[in-house]
Amino acid sequence: MSNSEYIPPEVWTWEAPSGGQFASINRPTAGATHDRELPVGKHPLQLYSLATPNGQKVAIMLEELLERGHSGAEYDAWPIRIADGDQFSTGFVEINPNSKIPALVDRSGPEPVRIFESGAILLHLAEKFGEFLAPSGPARAETLSWLFWQMGSAPFLGGGFGHFFVYAPSRQEYPINRYAMEVKRQLDVLNRRLADSEYIAGPDYSIADIAIWPWYGGLTLGRTYEGADTFLATHEYEHLVRWARQIDARPAVRRGRIVNKLTGEPWEQLHERHDASDFELRTQDKLGAADERESVADDAIYR
Ligand SMILES: N[C@@H](CCC(=O)N[C@@H](CS)C(=O)NCC(=O)O)C(=O)O
Question: How far apart are the CA of 192 and the centre of ligand 1, in A?
């Protein structure tokens, strides 16, 4: 790929991988590529995910619900290795026709219910357990506004900035400038909000914080896209930094963010989660074996 001007043909065709990470699994069609059923564990909720920012949201929510004593939120978390194409198995496509993690199957009722899209999963769980979302009124409206803000905004951070800063075959000024500008604007939106409010949607911790923190908190804490915190001067957003650290210290967040994490330090990799004791007993430092199969960082993938 070169920086020379691209003259689009009249009709686009898929002729060759575009280059960059993930090019080998990118394709312009949907649907399954191979037959494989998903595993099912013993708990009412089955999570199929990976510890990317989108994946972390759901595991954090489930750990927060367990922290509040909701035993019905017990879950099995199965890793979906998106770099290997697990999201294109028949089993996964049945629960998410869009082939993206996270996806949840709620087996607590007479029939299993599939839920895909992280925002829909957070809403489902918040309503099911009556937590982290006011049942009505202005507080609910504010929380949903910020939840949907995240759904619309993070693709600019991940699919735009992160892609061109880290995953594209070469670094190019135009797209990096364009998305850095937008991400800086988003950081300012959050910083101004958090100057006036302890949490994103008001005085109470909510699914808005759970959705936004893995992306914008991760970036601010220097965990997402190496060098991006310095490049974007995230330390200048002091209220955002305060909030990012505050959420990071929550026990449920400390647990949730390492669920289905396949890379990083061995102590922060819990490949599968089936029991609360797994955080003590089954992280990779305890099992003493790195997962050789995962070669691509799972902490900020957004293709
Ligand atoms: N809007 C979706 C985005 C999900 C998403 O983009 N997931 C990425 C990982 S962060 C994925 O599964 N990518 C695999 C692929 O694109 O094939 C959500 O919030 O759940």
Answer: 28
pLDDT digits (tens, 9 = 90+) for 7-27: 999 999 987 666 776 677 889
Ligand 1 pocket: which residues have CB below 6 Å? 52, 54, 82, 87, 99-102, 117-119, 301-303
Per DSSP, the residues of the chain read --SSPP---SS----S---STTTTT--S--S-SB--PPP--SSSEEEEE-SSHHHHHHHHHHHHHHHTT-GGG-EEEEE--GGGTGGGBHHHHHH-TT--S-EEEE-SSSS-EEEESHHHHHHHHHHHHT-SS-SSHHHHHHHHHHHHHHHHHHHIIIIIIIIIIIISSS--HHHHHHHHHHHHHHHHHHHHHHHH-SBTTBSS--HHHHHHIIIIIHHHTT-SSTTHHHHTTGGG-HHHHHHHHHHHT-HHHHHHTTBT--SSSGGG-BS-B-STTHHHH-SHHHHT---TT--S--SS---
Residue ranges for the chain with pLDDT beneath 70 = 1-3, 16-18, 21-22, 289-303
Residue 302 confidence (pLDDT) = 45
pTM value > 0.70: yes
Residue 264 domain boundaries: 1-303
Supply the residue whose CA is at minimum distance from atom 19 of ligand 1. Answer: 118
Q: How many whole angstroms separate alpha carbon 175 and alpha carbon 171?
A: 9
Work out which ligand 1 atom sits closest to the CA atom of 301: 10
Q: Which atom of ligand 1 is nearest to the CA of 25?
A: 17
Per the structure, the count of domains in the chain is: 1
Asked if 270 and 260 count as a contact pair (C-beta separation under 8 A), the reply is: yes
Residue 154: CATH number of its domain: 3.40.30.10
